[in-house]
């Protein structure tokens, strides 16, 4: 049984006050807080077991290597990946998507070839494809969401043409919480012979993810949203796609042999992992994922969906508040503006005085802001440790915003 108070006790920062008020942390879409088990495990590794990985035969190097490489299997289990060698360590989703852009897409896409994107995408799943547009003449085809923020799979598939070489789509919008049916997109795309890259940065935190069932080719996750440390993450890449990729970064670990005249490369995943990695960061991510799996992603999803329904009803009852799309299916993420000239930055500042942490801005999703007809929103994004009482605190703080700014 899910006991949110027990979960909250695992997160030291949630007991603090901000501006004399109990912290209500609703900026989880940007980065989640860290449980004590992650903090303690990383500290112990630095204090007791740290050394560089792969390169030594001494005891500490072997311990570090064992802990570091063990995370590959944890991530594979978390994503239900068929083989842990399909897990490439990265610093987060941004690096993972750039890896695919440089190592898979750039060598095979030509001027006039197309990449299908949705307007819901985070800049991390936009800018790497703009690089190919600028440098190689690749065409970006955009798919707009419905008025309620949803993105039907058939709408994405309708954008696929004879020159489409890739679909790159989010699993869950970081602005609207939209849940995208990436399994249906992947199935339709496979029938057309088009690979699919999924940005799982938001979805993997809130629900079970099964890359085998989804049927995509690439799936990126980022550690700092998964209650792990910043600078950690991974991308799952199907073996047949790995075989089509050139190395991304050059340096230690990713090579087999180097001479003055030649270089041969290691087999994946090492082929795509150059240099000394974020050893303790990745270890911390593994601890965070074990923690999540011990609770159960279905259990977490049920709690957050209950929060989503409760919060949506409360926010929709405020007739002076503009909710920027509440799709039928999605995460507990709400973007909002006030009627009138009030800026979301002002809203965020006032909420902060009440101890309520939200994010204001474009949320690295400028094409979506343009589509919505706004320059910015205030975003409240919930996590497994949030409560209905905190949703009430958000509403109370928004009412103060209305009184002061409305």
Automatic annotation (TrEMBL):
Cited SUPFAM superfamilies: PLP-dependent transferases (SSF53383)
Signal peptide (from-to): none
CDD domains in alphabetical order: SufS_like (cd06453)
Phylogenetic lineage: Bacteria, Pseudomonadati, Pseudomonadota, Alphaproteobacteria, Rhodobacterales
Catalytic activity: (sulfur carrier)-H + L-cysteine = (sulfur carrier)-SH + L-alanine
GO MF terms, alphabetically ordered: cysteine desulfurase activity
Organism: Thioclava litoralis
Span of domain Aminotransferase class V: 24-394
Named cofactor requirement(s): pyridoxal 5'-phosphate
Pfam families (UniProt xref): Aminotran_5 (PF00266)
Entry keywords, A to Z: Pyridoxal phosphate, Transferase
EC supergroup of this enzyme: transferase
Function: Catalyzes the removal of elemental sulfur and selenium atoms from L-cysteine, L-cystine, L-selenocysteine, and L-selenocystine to produce L-alanine.
PANTHER family: CYSTEINE DESULFURASE, CYSTEINE DESULFURASE 1, CHLOROPLASTIC
Keyword Transferase on entry: yes
Superkingdom in the source lineage: Bacteria
Similarity-based family: Belongs to the class-V pyridoxal-phosphate-dependent aminotransferase family. Csd subfamily.
Protein name as catalogued: Cysteine desulfurase
């Amino acid at each position: 049984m899910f006991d949110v108070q027990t979960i909250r006790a695992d997160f030291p920062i949630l007991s603090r006050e901000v501006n004399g008020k109990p912290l209500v942390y609703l900026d989880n879409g940007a980065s989640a807080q860290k449980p004590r088990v992650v903090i303690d495990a990383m500290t112990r590794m630095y204090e007791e077991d740290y050394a560089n990985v792969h390169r030594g035969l001494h005891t500490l190097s072997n311990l570090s290597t064992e802990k570091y490489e063990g995370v590959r299997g944890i991530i594979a289990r978390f994503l239900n990946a068929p083989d842990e060698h399909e897990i490439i360590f990265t610093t987060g989703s941004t690096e993972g998507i750039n890896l695919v852009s440089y190592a898979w897409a750039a060598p095979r896409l030509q001027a006039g070839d197309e990449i299908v994107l949705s307007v819901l995408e985070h800049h991390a799943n936009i800018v790497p494809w703009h690089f190919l547009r600028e440098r190689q003449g690749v065409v970006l085809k955009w798919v707009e969401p419905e008025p309620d923020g949803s993105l039907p799979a058939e709408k994405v598939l309708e954008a696929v043409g004879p020159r489409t070489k890739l679909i790159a789509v989010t699993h869950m919008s970081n602005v609207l919480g939209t849940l995208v049916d990436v399994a249906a997109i992947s199935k339709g795309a496979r029938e057309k012979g088009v690979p699919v890259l999924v940005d799982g940065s938001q979805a993997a935190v809130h629900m079970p993810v099964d890359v085998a069932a989804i049927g995509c080719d690439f799936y990126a996750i980022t550690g700092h949203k998964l209650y792990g440390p910043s600078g950690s993450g991974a991308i799952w890449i199907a073996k047949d796609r790995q075989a089509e990729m050139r190395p991304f970064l050059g340096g230690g670990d990713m090579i087999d042999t180097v001479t003055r005249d030649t270089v041969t490369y290691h087999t994946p995943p090492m082929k795509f992992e150059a240099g000394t990695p974020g050893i303790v960061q990745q270890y911390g991510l593994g601890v965070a994922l074990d923690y999540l799996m011990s609770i159960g992603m279905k259990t977490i999803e049920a709690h957050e969906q209950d929060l989503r329904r409760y919060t949506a009803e409360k926010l929709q009852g405020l007739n002076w508040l503009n909710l920027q799309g509440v799709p039928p299916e999605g995460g507990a993420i709400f973007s909002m503006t006030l009627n009138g000239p009030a800026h979301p930055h002002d809203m965020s500042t006032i909420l902060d005085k009440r101890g309520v942490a939200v994010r204001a801005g474009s949320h690295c999703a400028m094409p979506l802001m343009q589509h919505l007809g706004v320059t910015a929103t205030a975003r409240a994004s919930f996590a497994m440790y949030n409560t209905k009482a905190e949703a009430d605190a958000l509403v109370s703080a928004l009412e103060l915003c209305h009184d002061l700014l409305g």
